[in-house]
Amino acid sequence: MSGDGLFELDDAAAPANRPGGTAGSLAGNAHASAPLAVRMRPRTLDDLVGQQHLLRPGSPLRRLIEGDQPMSLLLWGPPGTGKTTIASIVSGQTNREFVEVSAVSAGVKEVRAAIDTARNRLVRTGGETVLFVDEVHRFSKAQQDALLPGVENRWVTLVAATTENPFFSVISPLLSRSLLLTLEPLTDADVRGVIERALADERGLGGRLTLEPDALDHLVRLAGGDARRSLTYLEAAAGAAESPEAGDDGEGAAEPGTITLATTERAVDRAAVRYDRQGDQHYDVTSAFIKSIRGSDADAAMHYLARMVEAGEDPRFIARRLVVLASEDVGLADPTALTVAVAAAQSVQLIGMPEARLNLAQAVLHLALAPKSNAVIKAMDAASADVRAGKIGPVPAHLRDAHYGGSKQLGHGQGYRYSHDAPYGIAEQQYAPDVVADATYYRPTSLGAEASLKERWERVRRLVRGR
User: Fold this and answer.
1) Cβ-count burial of 248 within 10 angstroms (0-12 exposed, 13-18 middle, 19+ buried)?
2) Backbone angles phi, psi at 117, to 5 degrees
3) Pair 226, 305 in one domain
4) Boundary of a domain, candidates 134, 154, 182
5) 105 close to 22: Cβ distance less than 8 angstroms
6) Is 377 part of any domain?
7) Is residue 347 part of a domain?
8) Considering its fold, how many domains does the chain have in total?
9) Which helix (H) or strand (E) holds 258?
10) What does the alpha-carbon distance between residue 115 and residue 105 come to, in Å, rounded to a whole number?
11) What is the DSSP string of 344-372?
12) C-alpha–C-alpha distance, residues 448 and 333, integer Å
């Protein structure tokens, strides 16, 4: 069973006469001891929760399933939003064989074997196959290339699922031959509906337990838009409520057959942080983290830092981002920012987690509260743009190295003025090549400590250039 999708196919939707092996991996999951999330899988598109933008009449997904049209799908969305469910519905409602290949464990050999089997089945019996590839972004280019013959010749209906941006993680030939469907995170109302249906449905808890409103709210909050997670937590809470020890929830006796907030909290130790540090959540949370510091919102920055820490993000990655930000977004508006960021990075190396989270937090707060300037990166980018444009004239002769034999005959070093001998320690002379002699790269802001630097730089610039 895949770890990403919401539900997989159960017996009621399973094609008949399914052979063994991976093709039957979703069969037999309707038994009473199966996980609640497995028993409550939708069987049809109408049972699918959320994703209304994909379910409208005439939508490509409905045409594929209801019109039984051969088409390969690439499903992109967060965990628990129904990617595996859609694959199983395509298989069940179109009576196609379901074959699953895991991108975690399968290689090119297994991919080709699955496609060859599907092709032979198509030739012998006319039976079509849904080839489901979970976490397709984990496939190498060679493995993804191995899928192309089956897709191009329609030997299989490929349904590939990914939590990562497919434009970065899926090869272009496969992307261009598949219909890309983006799945949205489930809303709280969607998750609430999933839980309430599981409470009442005979495949679920069959109405034998009542869930208190505050316990329901807690489950919805913990799920974070992941329906599978919500049912996993509900099943844990139901088990706790039905256990012999459920007579006392710590706040007095609980009503028989009732799942209380205390029972739920006991069953689910802590909120699972909704953050995949290998997928899109990694990039989204990191982006929000940096932008919150840049925007001087210390509270938001601390929130995103906590999400990354709780999710097990590499603290060295966080520290590196802070060191970059110290120069990119604070710069000389607070000259101590880089020192603080580097100190936090060194603390991570010296101390390690979990204690180093405090050093990271201190650095985050310092950077968020510091005055902001992007003059450093703008100066670097402007200078680099001129260099890339070919503005790299010769070094002025008086600045060239004059320490080797024969250099004086070439005029090197002649006319150079030693800065320490000049008034204020600043000598009037040309330093930049002629082609950029009048260029202005560093433009200090009037924020923080950079305001005084701005005044100084304007005076120094006039002295150096004789103006």
Assistant:
1) exposed
2) -65, -40
3) no
4) 182
5) no
6) no
7) yes
8) 4
9) strand 258-259
10) 17
11) HHHHHHHH-TTTHHHHHHHHHHHHHHS--
12) 5
Report which secondary-structure segment, H or E, holds 134.
strand 129-134
Long-range contacts for 295-304 (Cβ within 8 Å, ≥24 apart)? 296/368, 296/369, 296/372, 297/368, 298/364, 298/365, 298/368, 298/369, 301/364, 301/365, 301/367, 301/368, 302/361, 302/364, 302/365
Task: State the CATH number of the domain containing residue 236.
Answer: 1.10.8.60
**Does 140 fall in a domain?**
yes
3-state DSSP call for residue 237?
helix
1 lies in a domain? no
* Angle formed at CA 106 by CA 14 and CA 274, multiple of 5 degrees: 75
Q: How many helices (H) and strands (E) does the chain have?
A: 19, 7
CATH code (residue 91): 3.40.50.300
Dihedral sign for Cα 113, 119, 125, 130, please. positive
Q: Per-residue DSSP letters for 297-338?
A: -HHHHHHHHHHHHHTT--HHHHHHHHHHHIIIIIGGGSTHHH
DSSP secondary-structure letter at 253?
B
- pLDDT at 199 (0 to 100): 93
CA gap 399, 116 in Å, rounded: 71
403 falls in which pLDDT band (50, 70, 90)? low
How far is 391 from 432, CA to CA, in rounded Å? 11
**Residue 174 belongs to what H/E stretch?**
helix 172-176
Query: Which of 49-53, 145-149, 245-249, 286-290 has the weakest average pLDDT?
Result: 245-249
Q: Residue 449's domain spans which residues?
A: 386-464
- pLDDT category of residue 24 using cuts at 50, 70 and 90: very low
CATH code: domain of residue 342: 1.20.272.10
Query: What are the structure tokens assigned to 290, written together?
Result: 């940096």
Cβ distance 321 to 360 under 8 Å?
no
Residue 102, SS3 per DSSP? strand
Q: Does pTM top 0.70 for this prediction? A: no
Residues found in the chain: 467
| CA dihedral (422, 424, 429, 433) positive or negative | positive
- The token duo for 415 is 């006319």
Coil, strand or helix at 154: coil
- Same domain assignment for residues 67 and 115: yes
Tokens found for residue 408: 């004086």
Closest alpha carbon to 181 in 95, 82, 280: 82
Residue showing tokens 């204020």: 424
**CA 366 and chain centroid, separation:** 26
Tell me if residue 179 falls in helix, strand or coil: strand
